[in-house]
Amino acid sequence: METINILLVDDHTLIREGLKLILKKNKQFKIIGEASNGVEALEFLEKNAAKTHVMLLDITMPELDGFEVAKVVKKKYPDLKVLALTMHNEESYITKMIDVGVHGYVLKDSNLDDLSSAIKTILDDKPYYSSDVSAVMINSLMNKDKQKDNNAIDNLTEREKEIIHLISDGYKSSEIADKLELSTRTIEVHRRNLMKKLEVKNTAELVSYVLKSKLIS
Amino acid sequence: METINILLVDDHTLIREGLKLILKKNKQFKIIGEASNGVEALEFLEKNAAKTHVMLLDITMPELDGFEVAKVVKKKYPDLKVLALTMHNEESYITKMIDVGVHGYVLKDSNLDDLSSAIKTILDDKPYYSSDVSAVMINSLMNKDKQKDNNAIDNLTEREKEIIHLISDGYKSSEIADKLELSTRTIEVHRRNLMKKLEVKNTAELVSYVLKSKLIS
DNA sequence: TTTAATATACGTATTTATACTTAGTGATTT
DNA sequence: AAATCACTAAGTATAAATACGTATATTAAA
Fold first, then answer.
1. Edge-to-edge order in the sheet of strand B81-86
2. Interval A42-70: pLDDT, tens
């Protein structure tokens, strides 16, 4: 059983102390550094990145927040695992952290077992998300879908959907006409109708609209 | 404790029989109908939708598959809860079912407890997804993000990102020029450079590219 | 059965986007 | 000091998209 070296990053001293006490219960864990903001954390890593295995990272911090830190770490120290630690259970935070390349995400009301298994899971190169977090993700996917209802996209015809798909793939009207064996004029009319139905001004906004509304993936 | 009326839709007789036996263990559940394909299921609902509470729906079926059935049901019978039941644990299936408006999704290797709580959860107007499914979702989000790395988008300059954002919002070059107090020609150069860097042919593909790569949300 | 919607197609005109070339300036790097 | 890069800008020319109007055959819905 090898020692796991941990860097603790949180702006609240009390929370850092608490985490230290919790982590001490598992003798495998060793806290080799602490930082109270992003700048300090990156300074520590400048010298000690090689021996650091896991970074426990708070999201909301002064100076340089967790998002920015995670971005930098991912680029400069790709081997270092980052476990986001936060009280925020909102979708925007979670997706943003995932986007930024965090390996795991645990809520601050987790217990020692959760934390231990999170650390071990991400060291094993698997993502870890506490169950509450998963629930939020699924929920948000559901809600996004609800938004999709009742909107203008339902009024598109099959032909229009077909054409909008080809437009998004970068085909110009003449190419679409060839593909579907139709006149270029017909495709142009479909474009006009599509823009009118979806109330957009040009091709760019049209593509943007359909992609955001998830008609096309 | 009210009776919950269930419609069972699966093309394999053996699976239907098995499900009936499993569901019989809970006296609250009552199977009021069966169907071996989508067409039969919709025919049953034509007459009995009012008294049907939950539809247990297999995805892979002949004639009319689960996706299509779910679509129709959502439109015609919005109060009827649909629980997708399948052995497929792949991301494409799951996201597609969510898109189509299914209320819950359970794998066929679940046990009675899972099934019962799934049914009760969706009747309570909450989404239900078995834990394995959640894991797949999170994983797919992670993987999408990994794809994003190493791609051409990292090479874009701040100005280019700013402009591509405005393009996606439907602004034409002259409008972007006004907004940023630059020459229209400058914007045109940026567009050219963007298309060259991202190896796309036109505006449509450009917008499609950046949205899919999640540079813009 | 009339109505409405869909898909098809052409004409004309204007506006945008795209292609190719050249070039100055300021900041950064080697 | 020289080279590189990001940003800026212009000239010229063609291709594509957009904005109008008009029209017809088919199909779905009232």
1. B29-35, B4-9, B54-58, B81-86, B104-107, B128-129
2. 889 888 988 999 999 988 777 677 888 88
